[in-house]
Amino acid sequence: PIWWYTRGAMHAGRWCIHFLKNGNRQLAPALWVRNIFVPMFGQHDLAGRLVSFFMRFCNIVIRSWLLLMWAMVCLLFFVIWLALPLIISYSFFVSFQVLKS
After folding, report:
1. How far apart are CA 52 and CA 101, in angstroms?
2. Separation CA 7–CA 56 (nearest Å)
3. pTM of the model
């Protein structure tokens, strides 16, 4: 248990941060924010700019939401990592209590 909650937790935390950075790299909502006013496909007329803006806005909203879900999954993995020894200990305790009775 000592390793699990010291070096193991640090390793799991680094893995979660890497996992989150990978999700950010895959979804790249900041890249879409930077280019929100750049017209798509070189269409510099009003209609092209409006369509580009709304398409990028929808992409930003959806990708940000997906990144938030990705972060929640990452946090869930870390919490499960921390709770796993407690869950296993509890299940052993319960199984031994059943065997006693």
Report:
1. 69
2. 42
3. 0.81
Which residue type sits at 5?
A: Y
- CA torsion, points 67, 68, 70, 73, in degrees to nearest 10? 180
The secondary element (H helix, E strand) that includes residue 28 is none
Q: Please write the tens of the pLDDT for every residue from 40-92.
A: 888 899 999 999 999 999 999 999 999 999 999 999 999 999 999 999 999 98
* CA dist., res. 93 & res. 23, Å (int): 38
CB 16 within 8 A of CB 78: yes
Q: How many CA atoms lie within 13 A of 27 on its CB side?
A: 21
